[in-house]
Specification:
Blueprint (H helix, E strand, L loop, with lengths): L1 E6 L5 H13 L3 E6 L5 H8 L9 E5 L4 E5 L1 H11 L10 H16 L2 H6 L15 H21 L12 H15 L6 H11 L2 H15 L4
Helix pairs in contact: 1-3, 1-7, 4-7, 7-8
Bound molecules: glutathione.
């Protein structure tokens, strides 16, 4: 029923988000892999799946028709709606509202973190000299994680206790902070380590390592 179109795993932070959601749900899915950063070739290949020309893309085939969903947050929302039993959002409406804000803040923000700490999942590299805006954004992420973990984390260890879309959205940031050795207070570091230890993150990392070994990333 599901096909997830993803980009190079070492780099594609956006692709990792719905991958984490799908793995959490446990629904079977096929993967279509597109090598990124090949000038026009990449764009043309993605456009064969979606006119928006960006990965990730989720294809839903119910036998009668195929629907495509593009954009990582739209895919996560669609999966949450179709698999309510997986509880990808918190039950409490006000906690859910806050979790949505976390997801949306990540989706629409932190451009300097994305730029200076680009995802390089399989590598460990020194932190580059950071712009002030990047430092401010890193502090904001750490403070936001600390705040959610302090209030909800005891009920499951994730931002809102149980694993949620907020964690899917920040999974790539856990990878970035690990790659660049960003300093974090103990509870936040423990959260990043918990995220990196998820079987889905480990599988993604193993695939990213293969890309690096093959000279593809
Ligand atoms: N807002 C989109 C952004 C997706 C995005 O920018 N994806 C990048 C790869 S991580 C892409 O498809 N780039 C196309 C290219 O490299 O040609 C989402 O959340 O899915």
């Amino acid at each position: 029923m599901y096909t997830l179109v993803v980009g190079t795993k070492n780099w594609s932070s956006w692709s990792l988000r719905p991958y984490l959601a799908l793995r959490h749900i446990g629904a079977p899915f096929e993967e279509v892999y597109i090598q990124l950063r090949r000038k026009n070739l990449t764009g043309d290949e993605i456009k064969r799946h979606s006119p928006a020309g960006r990965v990730p893309i989720l294809k839903i085939n119910d036998g009668a028709r195929e629907t495509i969903v593009w954009d990582s947050l739209a895919i996560c929302e669609t999966l949450a709606e179709r698999h309510s039993e997986a509880k990808l959002w918190p039950d409490d409406p006000l906690v859910r509202a806050e979790a949505r804000s976390y997801a949306a803040e990540m989706h629409s923000g932190f451009a300097d973190v994305r730029d200076q700490l680009s995802m390089d999942f399989a590598r460990r590299v020194p932190l580059p000299p950071l712009r002030d805006t990047t430092k401010t954004q890193i502090t904001r992420i750490i403070d936001a994680w600390a705040s959610a973990l302090a209030r909800f984390g005891k009920d499951g260890g994730f931002l809102f206790g149980r694993f949620s879309i907020a964690d899917c959205m920040y999974g790539p940031v856990a990878s970035r902070f690990t790659t660049y050795g960003v300093q974090m207070p103990a509870p936040v570091k423990a959260y990043a380590e918990r995220m990196m230890a998820l079987p889905a993150m480990k599988d993604w990392g193993a695939a990213a390592q293969k890309e690096v070994d093959a000279g593809l990333a």
